Amino acid sequence: MIDTHSHIYLPDFDEDRAEIVANAQKAGVQKILMPNIDGQSVRSVISVEEEFPGYCYAMMGLHPTSVKGDYLEQLANVEYWLRQQDFLAIGEIGIDLYWDKTWEREQREVFRTQLNWAKKMGKPVVIHVRDAFEAVFQELDKVHDGSLKGVFHSFSGNKSQARRAVEYQGFMLGINGIVTFKNSNLDKVLTEMGPEKLMIETDAPYLAPVPYRGKRNQPAFIKHTLEKLAAIFDMTPREMDELTTRNAAQLFGLDVQ
Prior knowledge:
It is built from nine helices and eight strands. The chain has 257 residues and is α/β, with parallel strands linked by helices.
């Protein structure tokens, strides 16, 4: 298993990070991929990658909910770090209109800018979208030419949004604990489109799967998402593991056993 989206560099894990990583390894997680949030989280995400080399991988990007009045300064900081070292991907980026629509224009600009960086650098993108699928699709349409690839992280959209998302060549859906929630209806959405373009993630410390819902999430819990997906598609957990791991390895250019 590869946890394709985890924030184990956040302060939530400062007291027991090594134990959390050991738990993940014990549970069969081969790699943990960590998207950046903004300028405040950069050094943490890099330091965790350095602490667990070849196991934890840093990405670089500006999260949409961090797009405020200082967004140009924040963008410049991301660009600076992208020049300093090689990151696995550009992320997490996107548009989030759930909490606040005040900065929609700026969020669109920041998203588009980072998509163009990804194209130039040949890096995959990790897209955060909440109450903003139409806006995300509009911005993707402006820049997508077949050279972009990436994942719609924490996917929880409807059937038409799922279909449209994977119509972008090279794009997949990141599935986490939401699929185990009783009223998410995500199982019905996924059943219609098939398992071929899926990857698994935790979004730790958020969105812990059943039976840990409401608790601090961690990469070791990803097996519950895997097992739920396997049940949805009438596959064995091993078959689902092989499929989702292969998808993640191909998208992010990872070597896996």
